[in-house]
Amino acid sequence: MAGYHFVIADDHPLFRDALRQTLQDTFQMPDITEAGSLNDVTAKIEDTGDVDLLLLDLMMPGVQGFSGLVFIRAQFPGIPVAVVSAREEAAVIRRAIDLGASGFIPKSTPIQDMQTALRSVLDGNVWIPDGIDINASSESEADHLAQRIATLTPQQVRVLMMLREGLLNKQIAYELSVSEATVKAHVSAILQKLNVESRTQAVIAAAKIDEDHHV
């Protein structure tokens, strides 16, 4: 199990240290990169290249709850993400998995279970704590929206995040190095998949996935 490259994304140095120690105790000579904000995560992943697993806290600078997870999954679709959070509610765990997380590890998880979780995710499995039923019915509007957002392509998610920032089609086209026609096509697809009629409604829908579970 040598040679794994991990990125720990958490703004608490003490918890980063604890995670680093767990990784070093679990894997042989892992390569570990630490980041304390979403911008930091993005920059370091782009700098370091191949990453086997990102350990992502849902609350840190630049991360608006679940939208940080959505953004990372869109930006780096090939990198598995395990959410490591102080939250343990089934609804929070279910939504994280709906939005593409490969695992959800509560910060209270015993070290031995955390080691099992890390190995499981690296083996390509989805890991959640025992006793959590992620197939339970999701009745909240935000859960339904999360499931719809999960159907967007990575590029569509990036466009949606830029719409949330208030960017115009011309600006989005420039950022993504595509034509305005391509951006319009993405926006149309987003509206259809989210079952909304306007850009404003799409932005409101994207914000709602964070509303009723402040992670």
Average pLDDT rating: 88
Q: How many DSSP-defined strands?
A: 5
> What's the arrangement of strands in the largest beta sheet?
2-1-3-4-5
The major sheet is characterized as: 5 strands, parallel
Q: Kindly report how far apart the N and C termini lie.
A: 32 Å
Describe the structure.
It is a single chain. By secondary structure, the protein is an alpha/beta fold. It has 10 helices and 5 strands, in the order E-H-E-H-E-H-E-H-E-H-H-H-H-H-H. The chain has helices spanning 13-26, 38-48, 66-75, 90-98, 111-122, 141-149, 154-164, 169-176, 180-194, 199-208; strands at 5-9, 31-35, 53-56, 81-85, 103-106. The chain has a 5-stranded parallel sheet, sandwiched between helices. Strand 3 (53-56), helix 3 (66-75) and strand 4 (81-85) form a beta-alpha-beta unit. Helix 3 (66-75) crosses helix 7 (154-164) and helix 7 packs across helix 9 (180-194). The model has no long low-confidence stretch (mean pLDDT 88).
Blueprint of the fold:
Elements: E1 5-9, H1 13-26, E2 31-35, H2 38-48, E3 53-56, H3 66-75, E4 81-85, H4 90-98, E5 103-106, H5 111-122, H6 141-149, H7 154-164, H8 169-176, H9 180-194, H10 199-208
Parallel strand pairs: 1-2, 1-3, 3-4, 4-5
Helix pairs in contact: 3-7, 7-9, 7-10, 8-9, 9-10
Annotation keywords:
5-stranded parallel sheet; single chain; alpha/beta; 5 strands; 11% strand; 215 residues
Give me a quick take on this structure.
The protein is of the alpha/beta class.
